[in-house]
Structures are given as structure tokens and as C-alpha cells.
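Researcher: Structure prediction, please.
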Amino acid sequence: MGCVCMKQRQRYEDHALLAAQTHFNVTEVESLYELFKKLSSSIVDDGLISKEEFQLGLFGNCNRQSLFADRIFHLFDSKHDGVIDFGEFVRCLSIFHPETPQAEKVAVAFQLYDIWQKGFIEPEEVKEMILELLKESDLILPDEVVEAIVIKTFEEADSKRDGKIDMEEWKELVSNNPSLLKNMTIPYLKDITAAFPSFVLRTETEDNTNN
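Model: Predicted structure follows.
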């Protein structure tokens, strides 16, 4: 029972506090809360986003297997309890805000590629991510081409020639290849109320109807 109560408290973190800790203002946090409520009730209405609800929101299919979705969910689930509460949702989205410093985006992108969480990136991890990104784009490349991409990446990034990419080397790689951070910014997060007007309006209409 104690665990359930703790999660109840975590669900509804103060909007002003979240605004102070992120790149969103209070109005934007409130708009994100409407989005969060939709996602967290898409399968089970418990005020928390499960992995299945997260995948449903990303792909429209809660059963789809995706390494990319797994890595992003792991990033959002900072407490590592298998669900995403509202505070986690807002803080993680803030990383993808256009005004978030690049250094923070670089560090988080490193975490995404560090699949095995060893503190460095190995060739097999880069290959896994390349294959996953190709799958998400419905593209197919021969194995030898994928291997060539991995080899070229390590020739450029692995300056210490130890068969892995550490944070220092990753920063240098990103500096030379800014496109690696392209997916770390979601432009419409800069103006959420303009991005979700019909969504917010529809949610408010539904609430008024239900009341």
C-alpha cells in the first residue's frame, strides 16, 4: 500500500515547480498534463504511462517491438520502476526542447547509444542502433554496408584505438557530425500551446461533457 501511495504523490507534481526545473512555462506544463492524461489512460487509466501505453503513443501499436522505443522509455523512466509518472514525463521532454543546452543533449544521446550501460559505446551497439533506425525508416541495407558504416564511425571516433567510444570521444564525434543530435530536438516543444490547440480544446470539451 505504501508503494501505491508514493506513486500517487509522484503523479501530480506541482506544475510551477516543474516549470522552474525545465524549459517549459506553467501554461505549457499544464498543456503537457493534458497530453500525459491521454497517454496514461490509453490502456489502463491509472495516471502512469506503462511501456505498452508509451509504444501505443509512439507507433499506434502497443505490441510492436522496438529497440529505439525501449531506449527512449528507459530514458523517460528515470526511477526505473517500469512506469513514467508526470514529473518524469515533463523533465525528459525538456531534454528535447530547442532551448536545452547542446551539452545536455550530447550526454543524453550518449546514454541512448550506450545500450549495455557500460559507460562507453561498442561497435555492436552502434550496429544495433543503425539497424533499428533503418527498420524505423523501412530501409534495408546489406550487412556489409552496415559493417562499413560501423567501421568508418569507429575510425573517426575511436581516437584512443581501444575499440570503444567514451564520452570524450563521443563529444568530439558529435562536434564533427552535428546531425547525430538531429533527433534530440523536437521543435514544436517551443510552443506547445500552438502545437496542441485542437488536442487541448478537445480534452476540455470532453471533460465538460463528462461533468
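Model: The radius of gyration is 19 Å.
Researcher: Thanks, that helps.
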